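Researcher: Here's my situation. A collaborator sent me these components and asked whether they could plausibly form a single complex. I don't have experimental data yet, so a predicted model of the whole assembly would be a useful starting point for our discussion.
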Amino acid sequence: MEIKNKIKDFLEQETQRHIEDEKENLIEKGILDSFSMIKLIGFIESEFKIRVKMEELTPENFNSVATITQKVLTWQK
Amino acid sequence: MAKLVQDYVAQSVKKFPSKPALVINGQSITYAGLDKKSTQLANFLKEKGVRQGDRVCLYLPKSINSFISIIAILKADAIYVPINISTPEARFMQIVPDSGSRFVIVNERKSLLPDISAVGEYINFNTEKDIFIEERNNPINYANDESDTAYILYTSGSTGVPKGVMITHGNIINATDWAVDEFGINENDRMSQHPPLNFDLSTFDIYTAFKSGATLYPVSEELSLFPGTLLKFIEENELTIWNSVPSVLVYLWNSGLVKPDRLKPVRKIFFNGEGFPTKFLAEWMKIFPEKEFVNMYGPTETTVQCTFYRISEPPQDLTKLVPIGKACRNVEVFDIDGELYVGGQGVGAGYWNNPEKTAASFVADPRPGKRGTVYKTGDLVRLRADGNYEFLGRKDNQVKIRGNRIELGDVDAALYSLPYINEAAVIAVADSESGGNKLVAFVDLKKFDEIDIKKDLERLIPPYMIPDEVRVLQLPKTSTGKIDRPKLKEMYGNKK
């Protein structure tokens, strides 16, 4: 499965909320909050075998399924 | 001495005209600029017909304009009613008419805004281009005095209708003057402004900064979700004072980025709004022995803080919250049968347009020989031998989620308003990761197909009120036929 879909599925399952599309702003919607963020980071680390660099997380690169996917791709390199 | 809140700005202009009052997203405004622009906007509001005691809503993201608006509304002798920008339309449309506001200040493209034409109109910074003009510099004579209301904050109500807490100029001035004196806040401080403006915690940072000539650094809420960015923000701006709900500090701690060599400029850390999970507080204090940690306590109805407790060393007993402490200046706290009452100059003016709820909570001092109005907090406390109070819990169904005050009945009411819900009950359970609470909804459904409960709730209640989990089942009942909430809690605990 694509990274994008894995992240979307995980977040939908975790928060029991529906994500309209990959561009939806998850922070504004309250889907990403301090609960789900920690869980998402744990998921990304175990699922994609990477280390999330907390310093590199910013509201611009981690606010939608699309931008999170982009960031995961750069960490995988 | 300041009599009205806006006098703080006037006094700081005299002493520090060219000092920045606010820095936000790389933009800043000096005290002189804040004073001038707020006068211009106040004159504009008066031209629009705003009169003494009128309510004006604020519905815009934190920006320089939102702080100019606050001071301007006060200068126009009016009352500001901040509404969080993440508030769903349904709730927004309860608050605007309930407050009787004729004007709502926004910063949006008009097409996106709810239709309020039946009750009032928007003042839109995005389209009104000529508010800030020299013709509106004429100084204003204030009609208000310290007993007049300065702001109304809407909090969760137990029946699904938010209630507006009225706080006066005198309330704010008492709380602010005390805090500046007690903690030595001065013009060299750089103060975080983290809480949303509709949250009473913001009263502390905004007005202690404006009184002392310090600089305020508004922090967007989303920045708090990014620990690295937030730490960098604090360090790059060399913030000296941090004020927030404890959950932000717990979250920062859990990121693993909080180390002894970080956050160097910060000298004081204030937290308020909920208990700081002691395990995390002890960790913070151990790595930052030179910083001052202060626990503040106070319901919205008693103006930000009515008690405080300086924590002198890392707590030993990790099973207990640190005390909420002793009363602030000109405030009195006492308990009757374990319930905390607050008296003195912090007690607000009651609930807007709601004499019944006001009469129930703002009561005549029940102690023999005492006069005056006291606020019945509903908080259960214990008085320690050293004179400090400890918070034990609530008498009713109010809970705190990341510092946000929520009446469980408010969430129940939102669930019951969904056509496919048969019965519903929301409980708060401990969340081990955050050390705080989370909400779990139990629902019995009339139909199961094509429903999305959380999505439907998004339209009705703010994001922090949406339950973290929803479980579908037939709800257990007590012998008297009521929903058995203790049983639900037990079931949740067993089924995790």
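Model: Some features of this prediction you could bring to your collaborator: The helical segments of chain A are 3-15, 34-47, 65-76. The domain at 3-76 of chain A is CATH 1.10.1200.10 (Non-ribosomal Peptide Synthetase Peptidyl Carrier Protein; Chain A).
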